[in-house]
Amino acid sequence: AILIVDFGSQVTQLIARRLRELNVYCEIHPFSSAASALKDMNPRGIILSGGPASVLDENAPHIDQALLDANVPILGICYGQQALCMALGGNVEAGLDAEYGRATLNIDKPCSIFSGEWAVGEEQQVWMSHGDRVTQIPEGFEVVATSAGAPLAVIANEEKRMWAVQFHPEVHHTPNGAELYKNFVIDICGCTGDWTMGAYREQAIQQIRDQVGDAKVICGLSGGVDSSVAAVLIHEAIGDQLTCIFVDHGLLRLNEAEEVVNLFRDHYNIPLVHVDAADEFLGELDGKSDPEEKRKIIGRLFIETFDKEAKKVGGAKFLAQGTLYPDVIESVSFTGGPSVTIKSHHNVGGLPEKMDLKLVEPLRELFKDEVRALGRELGLPESFVGRHPFPGPGLAIRCPGGVNKEKADILRKADAIYLDEIRKSGQYDKIWQAFAVLLPVQTVGVMGDGRTYEFVCALRAVTSVDGMTADFYQFDMDFLGRTATRIINEVKGINRVVYDVTSKPPGTIEWE
Ligand code: XMP
Known about the structure:
Layout: E1 2-6, H1 12-21, E2 26-30, H2 34-41, E3 45-48, H3 65-68, E4 74-77, H4 79-87, E5 91-93, E6 99-107, E7 123-130, E8 133-136, E9 142-147, E10 154-157, E11 162-165, H5 177-188, H6 197-212, E12 216-220, H7 225-238, E13 242-248, H8 256-267, E14 272-276, H9 278-285, H10 291-313, E15 316-320, H11 325-328, H12 351-355, E16 358-360, H13 368-377, H14 382-385, H15 405-424, E17 433-447, E18 450-463, E19 471-472, H16 477-490, E20 494-499
Parallel strand pairs: 1-2, 1-3, 3-4, 4-11, 12-13, 12-15, 13-14, 15-16, 18-20
Antiparallel strand pairs: 5-8, 6-7, 6-9, 9-10, 10-11, 17-18, 18-19
The structure holds xanthosine-5'-monophosphate.
């Protein structure tokens, strides 16, 4: 394994991505707890991330001496380079000429992290982002590559097995950056690159068995990728010690509940409790239009319903959750200030505390695309594995102004037609998320010889890599026209369709 020490860079997670792509296992730990992680992990190598601080600041984060004494290869990136130099007796100065963006690197000398494209005499495009720069390298190091703004762009001490670069090899603006990581983790550190999903599956199954023994586990199933993969994996590990609880709040998409029940109960034979709680949820939501209030009602009812059903199952000691790695990484924050809540997303938070259960989280080491790969490895159908994200509060937050059964039914039909057209035209996998929204506005139309006065349906589709930022998806007009016609003809209650061309920011993906 490789230990990635986080100094707070925005792109630290990308280092982990690059290593995972090489089938190398790694963990990210904040600089302040890296020494204890070192003991637990016994890694083959250490990567020091970039970070926003200046090593010249009084309270600048520093490299724990234990890491330097560990006698494993070390690679410093940007702030990691500067911190390494300071720790080993070099010098760093506040850069008068801070460097941000593309730069050209000249490779001057051979070095064991260089190979292939990175050959002596060649130029490489790299991404720089630094204010300070190293002005004097520690004893035993030599400069092996330079750039106009960073004369000490890559430094190396082959004997001590330490390398450091001023730029960011993990970002895609450094096109050949992955090769540097490969040379470091495979050739230098000796990682074998055999961390595959098949291996992970076996390892995870063993861990689940060790953790739960013969105790009972309950798992909240939503039909989304994460909880589906977690449930199938845990069932493979402990069989019928697992019971899944599927709380159906009546705000799911068309036929979604049946699909979940068919797959998990009938196909996988997983004990599944299907709670039809639509009346309760819709009852309490009646007359409520504030988005946050709707979320709170749904969150609370979800916990209450789940808790009640879990008690009926009886004797469970563990709660399974599909927590992913990005939720787990303890973030390093230097700003300290509170961040603004735009939406209160995690509506199932609070379950484990309330229920006094221990957690089983077999996906907590994985990124989303790795969860999908594991799902395929476990034989989950593509229609589940490749699913667009769907929010916990479901259609409630797609009916601005207030939701009831009638509106949810109208929206469900329109949404199903829209997704059907997207699938048929082969665009589903190009889109991060696509859905219909039912607006609380009626407009006038004419159908046949009659006047209509019905609701407006808005269609939304976005591309994104992580849901944090998004662009609206560019359908062609024929597609939109065809889909609008079908929705208006087939769904009673809608007589006008519009397409949302807002990006995020300034919009959000959902309308509420
Ligand atoms: P926004 O609308 O904030 O959405 O741009 C970003 C991602 O989060 C999903 N989302 C939610 N997921 N509960 C959830 O579980 C929520 O209350 C919620 N609100 C938004 C949204 O679908 C998108 O994938």
